[in-house]
């Protein structure tokens, strides 16, 4: 074995008309891995659902030129019990062979049924091989939100059986790992207590070149002082239940009806996007909110966030969304629902203000107060950029790789 890495993760691959595509952000990470290791094998399910809003920025695998050094191992999607049972023995046998061939093992369990990363953990335990486990959300709590609108019987089964089982299952896998790489304070608080060694990390997608420059920052901070300029509020991400998009609309509505001049935009697609538009229209605030939908060009999204004053978020679950890191690095004050993750992000210098989860009325009051106290908002923008300045994609991924190497040297 010579510097080979096996990653088993949730799906970062999708198939469109027979063409295999990889998520752009994960590809950027793999490029840094390939600067450090001889070979990387990525195993994950292949998404065929064209309505998967989490896999839209992708690149054709066939256009990559890394040869044998980068291998993709497509696994079946098996989130139904029957499919999982049918594919289990074949996939586990395949993973067993690849685990034996690889020096470094990095797995990211995320579910109960159809979770091949968890199966890889079980196989590594059986082979007495050290493995690194990665996590960026508290999975059983996120799963609970996703089932909140299901019929009563399904919710009862999930709450009383599936979710407690998932929680215990993941706790076992964390305990057996040699190290955990845990993104964000919320997930770290949940999982680090089960690990022999845990590291708080960040999955950063913003580059040094994309960060707001000092001159851009001062121009933004000065512009916000003028009451003639409306508050520019944005969000960039999926319009999904866990992101609280309807709360976001209600907060903007309350702000508009208080007399505050607002230009708001939600950038991104998602299952609740049409419901957001309908709600905005029914409330009579469509003129104050734009919904560009999915924007493929990253440069446009970066520019849009960099030009905004406030990144407003209503995240309802203990997750670690990368968009908050990007917002800070782009000089956007982050205002939203409180949890350990955003609080920790602005802990060094400030740049954020938070309210209790679900309290969109208080969120609107917070925004109104910042409109009244424009100097305070300008200061908050400057502090946000200062807190976000520490984040850089290459540095973050290299730190992750260095931690993996150190763990295997100690094992």
Describe this structure in words.
By secondary structure, the protein is α/β, with parallel strands linked by helices. It has two domains: 4-204 and 393-410, Rossmann fold; 214-388, Rossmann fold (3-Layer(aba) Sandwich). 45% of the residues lie in helices and 19% in strands. The chain is built from 15 helices and 16 strands. It has helices at residues 24-34, 81-101, 116-126, 139-146, 152-176, 185-191, 214-223, 245-257, 273-283, 298-307, 322-329, 340-345, 360-372, 374-388, 393-410, and strands spanning 4-8, 13-16, 19-23, 39-47, 58-60, 70-75, 104-107, 132-135, 179-183, 198-201, 231-236, 262-267, 289-293, 310-313, 333-337, 352-355. The strands form two sheets. Strands 1, 2, 3, 4, 5, 6, 7, 8, 9 and 10 form a ten-stranded mixed β-sheet that branches. Strands 13-12-11-14-15-16 form a six-stranded parallel β-sheet, sandwiched between helices. The longest helix is centred in the middle third of the chain and has 25 residues, at 152-176. The protein is globular. The two termini are 16 Å apart. The mean pLDDT is 93.
